[in-house]
Amino acid sequence: MARHSVCKVADVAVGALTEVKVGRSPIVLSRLPSGEIRAVGGRCPHQGAALRFGCVSGTTGSDTPNELTYGCEGEILRCPWHGFEFSLRDGLPTTPDSESLTLRLRMYEVEVDGDEVVVVT
Amino acid sequence: MKVLDADVHESFASIKDLAPYLPEPYRGWIAGGAWRGFSQPFAYTSPGLGNRADVRSNDGSASVSDYGLMRDQLLDAYDLSHAVLTGYFYPTGLKLQYGFATALAAAYNDYVAEHWLAKDPRFIGSVQVNARDPEAAAREIDRMAAHPQVRQVLLPVVDDIAYGHPVYRPIFEAADRNRLMVAFHHTTFAQGPYGMGLHYMERHALLPLAMMPQVISLIANGVFDAYPNLRFMILEGGFSWLPHVMWRLDREYRQGRVEVPWIKKLPSQHCRERLRLSTQPTEDISGDQWMKLIDLMGTDDVLVFSTDYPHFDFDDPNAAIPRVLPESTREKILWKNAAEFYGVSDDPRSERSLEAAE
Ligand code: FES
Question: Which residues in B8-35 are b (16+ Cβ under 10 Å) and which e?
């Protein structure tokens, strides 16, 4: 287990993505509206797009065709390429898995040390 | 091995046969020759003019109106356990005179009940509707669902309807509340994306391209999710395209779910669980290729045998499904998958739930 001081707490904002490097590996950080900081692997588990170009948003729900609800603002990361959505809460996609395709964001443990964000790898 | 034939085309000898089942003023119209029925916009090039050449109808059309002939050539000849009557007279083809079309659907249903279903307990019936008036179609479904041999609603694939559109919801509501299945069959109006082509061969090859959009439409518009008990049968529309449609829909869903979050399962899962495809006309592929396709579909629950009797592209149950397939898979295709779909048991004679109408 290695601890890496990657940026200042003030550098990580709700609804935004901050990319840092640990060694040569990109990691993107975002703050959930609840205040927690998330650190996830910087490459999309689908085809490897650089997630720093993605967007943090909410997402839709519906039980009735053509009637959308919207929620989870600040908790969804959408890939800049194909638009697959992942929850920053748990790293899971918003769609069910198939046998041939299991997609997860790689989640890193985050600690706050004073005004430093520390990522544990 | 038991055989259930999922696609058999009964007919009348003349549209005037429907007159006794129609209310006025439509009875007078049909009896008087005011409409002679749908005409096909092409010539059949097969030796039997659209039928197998050993099945001749009196009026020369691609149809059979003689129960005795069908019994001898199909039901008895192949010892079928059941045959699903799917018609080929689809009033939804009328793009005007909706009241007339709805009355024709009801008349046809009554005609079939009396002249076909009542004659043989091996028949499974379909409800014909005028889908362009969905509320009227729903009433017709409610009416016909009382018939013990009726097991499904038949939705004809025409050139301008994708059935996932919300306007058709009353039809699925009615099928659902009556515990009927929903089957789709092409018509002489069905088209591919650029029309019918310029040759019959082209038109016939384009039919699967009229079926895929129905699957896409139903899933994208939430019909599979809204009615978890409904299941859907694609008749005579090919089957080797299913892996592509499943994979493509899964990909589109993953990248576009934000727009259609009422879809709750991967489309491929919906297909495997709820979609069935009839095998006729089989493509002439090897047993190995059949097994590869089934492997790609991820299940051998999907395929359902059909003959398409009396039409020229008939599949023989003894020849069309290769004998080199594993016995259990062949049995699923020829019998089990459809028996489960239609909720029929091994022996129609001992079956209380599927007996001839009184
Ligand atoms: S690379 Fe991210 S969704 Fe395809």
Answer: bbbbbeebebbbebbeeebbebbeeeee
Find how far residue B172's CA is from the centre of its chain.
15
Between helix B242-256 and helix B267-274 the angle, nearest 10°, is 140
Mean pLDDT of B311-323: 96
Structural domain spans, chain A: 3-120
Determine the residue of A40, A52, A76, A79 to mutate for testing ligand 1's pocket, defined as the one with the most ligand atoms within 8 A of the Cβ atom.
Answer: A79
Distance A21 CA to ligand 1 centre (A): 20
Full domain range(s) for residue B244: 4-357
Domain count, chain B: 1
**Rounded-to-integer distance, Cα B240 and Cα B285, Å:** 10
Question: Domain holding B124: CATH number?
Answer: 3.20.20.140
Q: Do B226 and A65 touch (CB under 8 A)?
A: yes
B277-310: per-residue pLDDT in tens? 999 999 999 999 999 999 999 999 999 999 999 9
- Expressed in angstroms and rounded, the spacing between residue A66 Cα and the centre of ligand 1 is 26
- The rounded Å distance from CA B300 to ligand 1 centre is 31
> pLDDT, tens digit, for every residue of B98-152?
999 999 999 999 999 999 999 999 999 999 999 999 999 999 999 999 999 999 9
Inspect the interface and report whether the beta carbons of A68 and B268 lie closer than 8 Å: no
Q: Tell me the shortest Cα–Cα distance from B261 to chain A, in angstroms.
A: 5
Tell which CATH architecture fits domain A3-120: 3-layer Sandwich (2.102)
Q: pTM (2 decimals)?
A: 0.95
For a mutational test of ligand 1's pocket, the pick from A40, A47, A106, i.e. the residue with the most ligand atoms closer than 8 A to its C-beta, is A47
ipTM of the complex as predicted: 0.95
A48 phi, psi to nearest 5 deg: 90, 15
Site of tokens 């024709």: B104
Enumerate chain A positions whose Cβ falls within 8 A of a Cβ in B: 59-66, 68, 82-85, 93-96, 98-99, 101
